[in-house]
Design a protein that fits this description.
heterodimer; A: alpha+beta; Ubiquitin Conjugating Enzyme; five-stranded antiparallel beta sheet; 4 helices; globular; B: alpha+beta; 3 helical TM bundles of succinate and fumarate reductases; 10% strand; Peptidase_C65_otubain_sub1 (chain B)
Chain lengths: 171, 319
């Protein structure tokens, strides 16, 4: 299929770069689930230090379109994360602005910046997801209960996050 | 894509009678649709509003080829016959001044970049000294790579797009693996393949951004948010309104890109204004080289949209 040659080339390059240089501070790993399909990746993200996510390892599936990098990929945490922001859907789908093309605006109030463009990459997207894990943005909070909890009872919020981290680790 | 480009003039004339109340040109380009205040969306979940937005966007982009075959100016004239006579006169003025044909482009926000790339390559093919024109174009593009790297774009990000553009230009004089050279029909086909066409658009967007970033003093005073009108930082402007696919080009982007490509471009403004002589059309010139081996690219601007003007009224047949 001619229309995916650019995508495969680019994904190979990103994969090589990630495996040869590694992610900054070893914060995540990412690569194709099987060498036979470059369009389905898995990422393993370490919970950022000094956050309740610390110690957790979060798995996400990355699904690439055939016109990548002209169009963005999709990212879904499996299992889903407990997080106050609307960008983390209850089903685990990650919906941050950097994963949306300009003009394709699911929440209407995002600024035009930090949108998907071919300048972005797997690494840049995962790094923004990690920074969002560390610092929830209540302005865009959709999980209202989780937001209230974060604001009013941070200790309880952190306890629930830590508990969910332990559950994911099977402890 | 299932467009039938030959029906273009027919469908255009069928559209003509509707919605002519304002007398303004009907241009079906445009960025994202405008929305009412965000309060209207409160009862919707993000997924619902996302889907609503997507369907609005899809409605806003007509089913038109990325770049259409040349058609006589009469096809454009037919669209305005029931409306403003000023536009009709301006179209007649263009026809009388040697512009016999128009090549439409899809109004997807990339029309300036796509039109410029297509028309530029077309001009190189028609050059009196084609090998020289090809070599100048390629040397300009080769020199653009360090500019992109200096702007902070990784080679990995742009090299596939670069290769796509350069190999197309190379094909004008160097046969492809199958032994064929680039013909007008192959060029048109390539520009209607979304992968090729959009890769070229992306390269030109990155080049425009790199040029603005490389010379902030020259451009900073002209960087305004296109909707709000507020001044913007170079980086924010480039990320939001240059690199982002689907964002319209304005004068700043046009100046930067035509300068980076060292190409002369002339833009006819079909704006419905009366300027002295009846129907006279103003041209804005982007002149970047003396003694170019190629004729200037000529584009037609109607508010929010760019098409290509041509002295010919239909495409040359491949021999």
């Amino acid at each position: 299929m001619a229309s995916s040659r650019t995508a495969v080339n680019r994904l190979m390059k990103e994969y090589k770069q990630l495996t040869s240089q590694g992610a900054p501070d070893g914060m995540f790993t990412a690569g194709p689930i099987s060498e036979s399909d470059m369009f389905a990746w898995e990422a393993l993200i370490m919970g950022p230090k000094d956050t309740p996510f610390e110690g957790g390892v979060f798995a996400a599936k990355l699904t690439f379109p055939h016109d990548y990098p002209l169009s963005p990929f999709k990212m879904k945490f499996e299992p889903p994360l407990f997080h106050p922001n609307s960008e983390f859907y209850p089903d685990g789908t990650v919906c941050i602005s950097i994963l949306h093309a300009p003009g394709d605006d699911p929440t209407m109030y995002e600024s035009a910046s930090e949108r998907w463009s071919p300048v972005q990459s797997v690494e840049k997207v995962i790094l923004s997801v990690i920074s969002m894990l560390a610092e929830p943005n209540l302005e865009s909070g959709a999980n209202i209960d989780c937001c209230k909890l974060y604001r009013d009872n941070k200790a309880e919020y952190e306890r629930i996050v830590r508990q969910s981290v332990r559950e994911q680790l099977g402890l | 894509m299932s467009e039938k480009p030959l029906d273009e003039s027919v469908s255009a004339s069928l559209e003509a009678p509707k919605m002519k109340t304002t007398g303004l040109p009907e241009v079906d380009d445009g960025g994202p649709p405008q929305y009412a205040t965000s309060n209207d969306f409160e009862p919707l979940t993000p997924i619902q509003s996302f889907e609503m937005n997507q369907s609005l966007l899809e409605d806003a982009i007509p089913d038109r080829p990325l770049i259409a075959p040349l058609v006589p100016m009469a096809a454009l004239r037919a669209e305005y016959e029931g409306g403003s006579q000023v536009f009709v006169k301006q179209i007649d003025w263009l026809t009388e001044h040697g512009y016999a044909g128009i090549r439409r482009t899809r109004g997807d926000g990339d029309c300036f970049y796509r039109s410029l790339a297509f028309a530029w390559i077309g001009r190189i093919m028609l050059s009196k000294d084609t090998p020289l024109a090809v070599m100048s174009a390629i040397s300009v593009l080769e020199a653009s790579q360090p500019l992109l790297e200096a702007a902070g774009f990784q080679r990995m990000v742009f090299e596939d797009f670069y290769d796509c553009l350069v190999s197309l230009i190379n094909e004008i004089i160097t046969p492809e693996r199958d032994g064929r050279l680039l013909t007008p029909a192959i060029l048109l086909e390539a520009f209607n393949s979304p992968e090729v066409s959009n890769s070229i658009v992306v390269y030109l967007r990155l080049l425009t951004s790199a040029k603005i970033r490389a010379d902030p003093d020259e451009y900073a005073a002209f960087l305004f948010h296109p909707e709000i009108g507020e001044p913007m930082e170079v980086r924010d402007f480039c990320e939001s309104f240059v690199e982002a696919v689907g964002k319209e080009a304005d004068h700043v982007q046009m100046t930067a890109l035509t300068k980076a490509l060292k190409v002369n471009v002339s833009v006819a403004y079909l704006d419905g204004h009366v300027h002295g002589e009846e129907g006279k059309v103003d041209f804005v010139q982007f002149k970047n080289v003396e003694d170019s081996t190629i004729d200037p690219v000529v584009l037609l601007y109607r508010p929010g949209h760019y098409d290509i003007l041509d002295q010919r009224s239909e495409d040359a047949l491949d021999v």
